Amino acid sequence: MSDFNLDWQREARTGVAEAVLCEPKTPAQIAAILGEAAARSARLLLTRLALEQYDALPRALREQLDFEPLSRTAILGGLPSGKPIEGALVVAAGTADLGPAREAARTLAFHGHTAPLIADVGVAGLWRLNEQLGRLREARVLIVAAGMEGALFSVVAGLVSAPVIALPTSVGYGVAAGGVVALHSALSSCAPGVMAVNIDNGFGAAAAAIKIMEAARR
Amino acid sequence: MSDFNLDWQREARTGVAEAVLCEPKTPAQIAAILGEAAARSARLLLTRLALEQYDALPRALREQLDFEPLSRTAILGGLPSGKPIEGALVVAAGTADLGPAREAARTLAFHGHTAPLIADVGVAGLWRLNEQLGRLREARVLIVAAGMEGALFSVVAGLVSAPVIALPTSVGYGVAAGGVVALHSALSSCAPGVMAVNIDNGFGAAAAAIKIMEAARR
Amino acid sequence: MSDFNLDWQREARTGVAEAVLCEPKTPAQIAAILGEAAARSARLLLTRLALEQYDALPRALREQLDFEPLSRTAILGGLPSGKPIEGALVVAAGTADLGPAREAARTLAFHGHTAPLIADVGVAGLWRLNEQLGRLREARVLIVAAGMEGALFSVVAGLVSAPVIALPTSVGYGVAAGGVVALHSALSSCAPGVMAVNIDNGFGAAAAAIKIMEAARR
Amino acid sequence: MSDFNLDWQREARTGVAEAVLCEPKTPAQIAAILGEAAARSARLLLTRLALEQYDALPRALREQLDFEPLSRTAILGGLPSGKPIEGALVVAAGTADLGPAREAARTLAFHGHTAPLIADVGVAGLWRLNEQLGRLREARVLIVAAGMEGALFSVVAGLVSAPVIALPTSVGYGVAAGGVVALHSALSSCAPGVMAVNIDNGFGAAAAAIKIMEAARR
Amino acid sequence: MSDFNLDWQREARTGVAEAVLCEPKTPAQIAAILGEAAARSARLLLTRLALEQYDALPRALREQLDFEPLSRTAILGGLPSGKPIEGALVVAAGTADLGPAREAARTLAFHGHTAPLIADVGVAGLWRLNEQLGRLREARVLIVAAGMEGALFSVVAGLVSAPVIALPTSVGYGVAAGGVVALHSALSSCAPGVMAVNIDNGFGAAAAAIKIMEAARR
Amino acid sequence: MSDFNLDWQREARTGVAEAVLCEPKTPAQIAAILGEAAARSARLLLTRLALEQYDALPRALREQLDFEPLSRTAILGGLPSGKPIEGALVVAAGTADLGPAREAARTLAFHGHTAPLIADVGVAGLWRLNEQLGRLREARVLIVAAGMEGALFSVVAGLVSAPVIALPTSVGYGVAAGGVVALHSALSSCAPGVMAVNIDNGFGAAAAAIKIMEAARR
Amino acid sequence: MSDFNLDWQREARTGVAEAVLCEPKTPAQIAAILGEAAARSARLLLTRLALEQYDALPRALREQLDFEPLSRTAILGGLPSGKPIEGALVVAAGTADLGPAREAARTLAFHGHTAPLIADVGVAGLWRLNEQLGRLREARVLIVAAGMEGALFSVVAGLVSAPVIALPTSVGYGVAAGGVVALHSALSSCAPGVMAVNIDNGFGAAAAAIKIMEAARR
Amino acid sequence: MSDFNLDWQREARTGVAEAVLCEPKTPAQIAAILGEAAARSARLLLTRLALEQYDALPRALREQLDFEPLSRTAILGGLPSGKPIEGALVVAAGTADLGPAREAARTLAFHGHTAPLIADVGVAGLWRLNEQLGRLREARVLIVAAGMEGALFSVVAGLVSAPVIALPTSVGYGVAAGGVVALHSALSSCAPGVMAVNIDNGFGAAAAAIKIMEAARR
Question: Chain E partners of F178 at a C-beta cutoff of 8 Å?
């Protein structure tokens, strides 16, 4: 019996394709999954693929992948053709939050969405956020990536009417190590309507944004 | 200087009105806020209003409120006129989750949305969920309220394409006391696109749903 | 041997008088301490004195106390004469944070400081904070009281050059219950120079502010 | 005095043989234990034996061991002869859960049981589970291995009458890192009769299954 | 639509009947469920029914219930007729663990099993346990209820070959408050094959024991 | 079968008599235990006996008990005759720590030891401790009771050569609520040789001190 | 769009310059930030710069940096000219606390302050602290760095009148691993007026001290 | 000013010499401390000295040290001459607990005590403990080292009258990872008089035992 059983119907059923979470898998398991996808000529998104795991894949597979080390994502089969869907916006509090933010942007692109990204607008200097206020208010759905104390979630959600998906990141140390403080700040935000996904889960944040955009198109 | 300073422009700015979180306030503070709202002829939603707090309000104020003990919500000024907006659906895993689920439904109604509620469809008996599959798939946004281990979030999100807002409840005991297990199950769901709000935060879940419905209408 | 041994020299040695933390003490113990202070004609500050504890004190003692239920503080012997020292400012994020904020203000007053208090300036409506920006920037030391996600600490500290003492409060529910999220937000603030005291410790926040004001006067 | 004192009578007394937990032991300690077992011509199961530990053993010992890196188990002395006992079934939610699931299967085999394993039937795609429903209902005892939010425990236990042993795995990240969410989901399952073992404890899950099968044979 | 939707087929499907967890329900909700059961002439088990909740039920319902305050259980419709199934044994470490232990015993009886209970055999005096060794070794499945440090789980499991279901109780204070230490001791027991249920979950422990006994009878 | 089975030989076997932990027991259970002790003319120590529990005992039993509400202890049968053993000393950091400190002192007295108690010597005013340095250095074993941050454990252990038993108390609020900070301070003390017992466990601290004193007498 | 957007006005606005937290950044990101600073001829402070990150920077950049491995800090552009401001004092409990203590001292120096440092004055030997009492009492603001149980915070704060900034360090193991015990000891200190910053946050402690010194100079 | 300031009078003042905790120190710092000790011809105990740290010391220093990798201890200057003091006994639950157990034994030897060690007597096979009962009952003070669930603490303390020092070890995985379960089992033991030290703190356990033995000799 096989070690895996991909849910190829998931995109049709739920609007978002199954992605391969690579972190807990061996290179052999990842290669086997890529092999099945290639045999079906299917497009596939890989997340949390460490550089060491990528390097351990057979060269022939590596050459088929569009791999980005910062976001630890790889795409097999390229982006969808056709005009991208506009409306989503990704905001990163600091330079250090760019990994998960890029994972979200790459997931949006994989599903045919534009994925503009605004970086380094943390609340310790509110003027940086104010410069971007126009773009923030134009978006139909926002993904906000922040670590440390995550104050950006509340500040953004108090300024816009679009849904805000909080993407807490594991950036921080001491009590903030691992991202729990940012996550809890999102969940207990004084600005109503903030929704949270798991720490560093850029894929999940994008999946939620895609579903929201789809709800708007039905 | 006053003890409070309501943000009357919040609905215009963010799409959701400021609600009064009553739990940490004294009856005198609640009465003063209600007085200001009445003076402005403004509608107002009160959340986490315990029966004891309600009973301690002046009779004249109590008579103006539509109070529901199960959800601990009160509405001043009635529901909006006009045809309600359709598309949101509230699902409660068990009878014990009805408090937060009703808080969400009441918040939806306060903002002019329909708020149908399906109760007692926990995963220990999947046939109950299957009976409701048609209604689940018709919804444009779902709020799923569950305590204990919160398995319902993943099961529902694996079946529908609409966005799923997980509303973890504090129902449970032992390791599940306080609702953290349900919250963490929502955040680490194997079904992509689940978004979570704070434990028992029916108001926040509804606020998010309203923003998603608005995004769909723009 | 006596059950207590007050440190009457503490104010001379450290700049802040010993206060009586009443919560874990019996009414008999509190009464005995008040009796010794009265016998010395000493002024005394009592903190975390619940209404039930106050009511259980002998009437003669109650009549000598200036008791404020909201902050659970009582003062024996009145405020110091002379012109109060100016420079400290207390800011409360919401109405619900007024208890600890008032404990700080009362402690400042007990030690001869002015204690102005700005209430209800949470970040979900930044305009409220902006209206107070002038007063915030004039202060020589700020105590900021906030519960929930505590985003106010970072926002204020990013706007002023005076030291900011974060006073996290236990206002909140779900993951924010007990105040730990607000505390951790203060500690991991992206705005440098925020200092934190224990949750609901208005006395400690004021003690720190008094020491900072004294350092400025030496 | 010796560093170890193996409990050779344990299988007779409790039905399950003592296994050697290798993780916290030095290679020299492991080699000494294997030496004593070989001297007694005893069969022995080693668990949590890392590849590095295995490689550090003397070659003569390595050649006597049947070592499987994925499950980190090694068997000295082969499997028991005779017809294996049928009835146990191991289910793994995802490919990433195969390590602990295989540890359980190897432990069953060491004790003379068949150990069929069904992989990749997570609840985000319930159709995969439904395809296996017949096999699930035939089993006399089930070990279900799952990480992340562990929703599979409740879903399986709601479908079968045999005892379900939940084997939470450490697969996950963010709040699910380390496996505590899966463990807590098992413990607070809304489906009655789920029993849990420690995170990644495939040996313990199998030991429990063996005892249950024995109880059925007495 | 109704607030509840009982899973009357659960016993046929899984071997254990659905029980009504009363703690998070209002008396009105409990009464409505009892009413439906009575209308079907169905037997019903209620768990975690506080004395105050019981007292708030209509007298007519109370008179139909067999209520035991110590275990907070009530039975509607009496025990099953016919010869009880023998083999299960409940062991309680101390007098204080009798509440959950009795909940387990009552659940066993409701499902037609004998439910002998041995009390006060904690490991601080091993002679008490040794006196009962014969009865312990005769049982086909054991439920061991213990709070505090839960050392009894390991000691019993090291002495018998039958499966041991650890029922951690919330008895304890300081670090042991709430029962987490006992639960964790069960999960990390050095004696293989111990399985754990949630803290104070006597119902779940009994449900597991019933499934194990059934597995033995198939 | 009886609900309890007292270990009357424990004092002979381990040097400390079994005490009855009353908190999790019903008044009927406590009364039954007292009845058995009275029938044997045995002395008995009751701990964590709340005033409400004491008041619910039959009057005849109450009259035989020496009950102290502050320490929640009761003694049946009086103190031992003969000259008390000298050497133990109990130190309490603050007035609020007197409950557990008195529980320790009463347990010492029950077992025939003197139990002097020094109160209110917290480290915020080291002069209070210095005044008692002679008595501290004369003791053969010290029990130090402290809540809050528990700095007293390290300071005392750095000054004396006798063994120091840290008795953390649950006095505190915010992060110190429940006593875990004091406990952890004791365990990670920079002064070697500090030993800790559970939070508020005055009985256990005294039991350890008694065993240490006995070791010195053998 | 750029990955970073430095807040060059922060020193003017808040009194403390933005520093670059290097730990979560790639060498390429750090090099780009240094490049922008060099282009502006701006001075810059880098914190949490691991030796491996430093070694991965281009040689030309490395040669411009004053790098100190123990504190993991680097300074671009040297210290400010002019007479340093006197008054701050850094105290380290043990040799192992020198890393964060030096980060604080280097940050003070970067901003034009003297930064004397007293090392190894832990409370297990109070005589070491007493030898330094004069210097402690002369300081206008103190930063106290301590790990383990952090008793030094309370002892120092009980002896001086200047503000005390507690800098908990991650030195410790067992329950003290990571520094949470030291942090919690600071927050729950029985000596009033202790303020805490995050674990190992020497930069933040110094930023707070600088603001306090500035408040004294206005 | 020096980075360190050893407390050479500690043994005279408290009965136990200061040891050098090497884990958080650099090799240069360790070498400097050893240099000062050698210059004084002082004996010195080093704890938590990793093999890598030892290897990084200058060869001349390494040759003066008696280093044992398993316990990570090194002794400078050899053991004391004269007849060792008898009475202490170290017990280790399993082979994996030998590291901390040996640290305790080496610390005892450094201070002139015998340090017999009994290994591998975990409670899953009580017969192993019973074989050693005579030796256990002869000891005047016992150090019991155990990880996992730590049931051995309660079982031993129920069998002997001497004081029992629980030394929890970090052996374990899942919920038991890091040793907190064993620590909490010790603290909440149902056997009175168990005292605990920090996880893996073999030095502290021995320091406590030495103080107890000294108390017995005064």
Answer: 177
